[in-house]
Structures are given as C-alpha cells and as structure tokens.
Design the sequence.
C-alpha cells in the first residue's frame, strides 16, 4: 500500500515534533509533497529531512497564518490537503484555570485550526478530492476530571470539524482524529511519567498503554488518502479503548 499520497500536496501544522512530525515523515514516505508549519524554528530541520518546505508561524497569529499558507501553496504548487496537528496541553482544574490560560488553549487548539483551514480553503477549492484532518483528542469524547479547558477546546474542534464537513461537502472531506495519550513531548509536559501514571493508563485504556505518534499518523494517513473516500464529518477515536473502557 506504499505510495498512497503520490501526487498530493499537503500542509501539516505542528510539524516540529510529536504527531505532526510523525505525520510529515509518514506522508513523505507515502509520496506526498509536504509543507510544514510550526512556531518552533526546528520545523525547518524536519522539513529538510523529509524533502519538504518549512515555515515558522504561530497558528494564533491571523496574518502570519495567511502568509504562511499562501507561501506553502506557492512552494508546493497547490494544496490538496491540510493536517491541523498544532496543539497545546492544559491540565488545570476549572477553579485554578486563569483567564489567560483559557484564552491561550482556545487560541491554539480551536482558533488555530479555524485560521489555517480558512486560509487554505481557496486553495483546496481549486483541486478535486481535497481533505482536512484535525487532530482533536479522546478528551473531546470522554473528558476527565482535571482538564476542562483542554477538553472544551478539543470538543469545540470536533464540532468545527463536523460543521465544516457539512459546509464544504461534497468537494472537501473534513475529519478529526481523537487520540488518547500519546508518547510525545506534550504528554511528558502534562503528566509525571511514574508508576502511578502507568497504573492509570493500564486501568483506563483497554490496550493498557500509550500510543506512539506513528500510530496516530497512520490514522491521519487513512483520513487523508483515498482509502477513506466515503468518510467525512467523522471523529475517529484512536485511543486504545479509553473512550469506552
């Protein structure tokens, strides 16, 4: 099944590390030409390693997003798809969440995908069978008791996915993946990785482990490729059974 993205030109945000980086690497192996966007200048190294184009921009900065998306489309020649993988974590309870933290999480996790998708829309409409995949979270499907702002931002992203899928059909397919805990820098920042953490994972996840970024990337590949040609408006749980266990 190699080569599922030959001829596709894809923009991936949050590609400097974690799920975005793994997605960029997989997409390049599958034949896609990729443009990578991240606020971390490290994205240029990732882009060089996969033979793509790197752009430094914060997804919450409207003008920077518009300029970066236009530059990406110009560098690639066109845009066939977008993967919105940029995101930040929050583990604050409601009574300890400041207004500034709330605003920042919403800006990155919800406003960012909106700004990127809106900027990419004119380019996506110029081609056929274009796609958008938003990286949401299992917290959007089953919130925990200590991540209200994060769950709200990802829950909003799922509904934005469904609404944009309806609005842009049939020309553009829009879907979301909802990962559980993934072995990425963001999870390592959010949690203390000790025996208590491992015990919670075993108790909460049917598969009793974290996923790798590469496992999530393969789900994003499915939703970007023609393998999912009759799928739109979906929120695909890729969470090791967390949301039903």
Sequence:
């Amino acid at each position: 099944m190699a080569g599922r993205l030959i001829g596709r030109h894809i923009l991936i945000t949050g590609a400097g590390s974690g799920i975005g980086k793994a997605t960029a690497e997989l997409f390049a192996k599958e034949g896609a030409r990729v443009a990578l966007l991240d606020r971390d200048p490290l994205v240029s190294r990732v882009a060089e390693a996969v033979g793509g184009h790197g752009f430094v921009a914060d997804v919450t900065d409207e003008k920077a997003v518009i300029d970066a998306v236009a530059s990406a489309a110009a560098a690639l020649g066109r845009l066939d798809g977008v993967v919105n993988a940029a995101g930040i974590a929050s583990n604050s309870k409601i009574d300890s969440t400041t207004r500034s933290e709330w605003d920042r999480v919403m800006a990155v996790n919800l406003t960012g995908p909106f700004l990127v998708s809106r900027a990419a829309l004119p380019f996506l409409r110029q081609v056929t069978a274009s796609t958008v995949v938003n990286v949401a979270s299992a917290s959007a499907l089953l919130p925990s008791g200590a991540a209200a702002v994060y769950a709200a931002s990802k829950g909003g992203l799922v509904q934005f996915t469904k609404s944009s899928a309806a609005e842009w059909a049939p020309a553009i397919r829009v879907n979301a993946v909802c990962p559980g805990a993934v072995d990425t820098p963001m999870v390592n920042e959010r949690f203390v990785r000790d025996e208590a953490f491992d015990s919670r994972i075993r108790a909460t996840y049917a598969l009793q482990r974290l996923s790798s970024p590469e496992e999530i990337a393969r789900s994003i590949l499915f939703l970007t490729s023609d393998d999912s040609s009759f799928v739109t408006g979906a929120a695909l749980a890729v969470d090791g059974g967390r949301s039903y266990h």
